[in-house]
Amino acid sequence: MTRILIIDDSALIRKILSNIFAETPDIEVVGTAADPLIARDKIKKLNPDVLTLDVEMPRMDGLTFLRNLMRLRPMPVVMISTLTTQGATQTLKALELGAVDFLPKPQVGADKSLQSYADEIIAKVRMAAKAKVRPLSDLPRQNDPPTLTDSTGAGNKTRRSMQASRPKLIALGASTGGTEAVKVVVRQLLATSPAMVVSQHLPAAFSDSFARHVDQATAMTACIAGDGQEILPGNIYIAPGDQHLQVVRQGQKFFCHLQDGPPVNRHKPAVDVMFRSVAQNVGADAIGVLLTGMGADGAKGMQEMHTAGSATVVQDESSSVVWGMPGEAYKLCCVDHVLALDKIAGKIMALVG
Q: What's the CA gap between 20 and 6, in Å, rounded?
């Protein structure tokens, strides 16, 4: 049984969330709190397994509370955020401080959308209860140096070294825990690194803020991918939160293609869509990287990249918030290297020579 404490200054949101979990046999709402000071006392008294946390609250804002919590008593937190520019910035900061995941505030009045919301928040709370949470002092440091040490996975670890051509593209996918994991990888890459395409599961409202966070973390230049935009070395192209990103080839050049199709693996953008296009159009000239995330998105696409001759790298279980996506790829025996998060950039640099 997962014991949850709901922290939100809105009585209506507290009631909606409590009603959702009341119908879930394996989750028990042990309490609610209208502000962080009340929550602080209830955490000591009730010892919950997971918190849901609002950002804007009276007496103490959610980010200040979260920073103190992750320093003194780390535990899984799912943020309940607003889908605005300010809400996106605050939520990404919360993930940086150690929150496991986030979800927008529920929309009142639409039964169908509320049921979909209920399914999603139940899945995220269940996942959060099993997630690895580290004290704030243990989170990756911005200046951690790259390293070339690695452990090999289920694939052929020598395939890339036998190829004469230098990889022209890095394709990276991530989900839960990925907003910070992506930054850990790219901050160790050089401005002259091959181009990178990224599919991170995020709502459209968060895309611009995420791109800015990535751009500030790396010597490369990060932006939201544009349809028809040429893919050039030293640049990171991030899928917008409401479209699939594909890589297409014209002669010796590569371009971004945005596809407004249905969700794949319940996601849009989907990592599988991007990886599949890279397998078909870049093949052995690509490196596939799959980071922490819930579910299996990206696993089959990585298998296709591996078959096409791409080098493949996944984050290991111990450093992942959730070893879902990389773990599923590992099960498909299509992984050349299984690495701790802080070792992945070093491996990319070694592969590109």
A: 12
- The phi and psi torsions of 197 (rounded to 5 degrees) equal -110, 140
Is the pLDDT score of 39 beyond 80?
Answer: yes
Can 111 be counted among the known catalytic residues? no
Active-site residue 209, yes or no? no
Looking at the structure, tell me whether residues 22 and 168 fall in a common domain: no
Secondary element (H or E) of residue 124: helix 111-130
pLDDT exceeds cutoff 70 at 149: no
Report the CATH number that the domain containing residue 54 is assigned in CATH: 3.40.50.2300
Domain with 42, as residue range(s), is 2-137
Question: Are 170 and 58 part of one and the same domain?
Answer: no
The CATH number of the domain where 171 resides is what? Answer: 3.40.50.180
| Given the residues 35, 101, 201, 336, the one annotated as active site | 201
Q: What is the mean pLDDT of the chain?
A: 91
Listed in sequence order, the residues at least 6 apart from 182 whose beta carbon sits closer than 8 Å to its beta carbon are 172, 174, 198, 200, 214, 291
pLDDT at 287 over 60: yes
Q: Which of 49, 150, 175, 310 is catalytic?
A: 175
DSSP state of 105: P
| 242 labelled catalytic | no
Query: Is the model's pLDDT at 156 over the cut of 70?
Result: no
**Which is catalytic among the residues 8, 297, 336, 342?**
297
Residue at 144 is within a domain: no
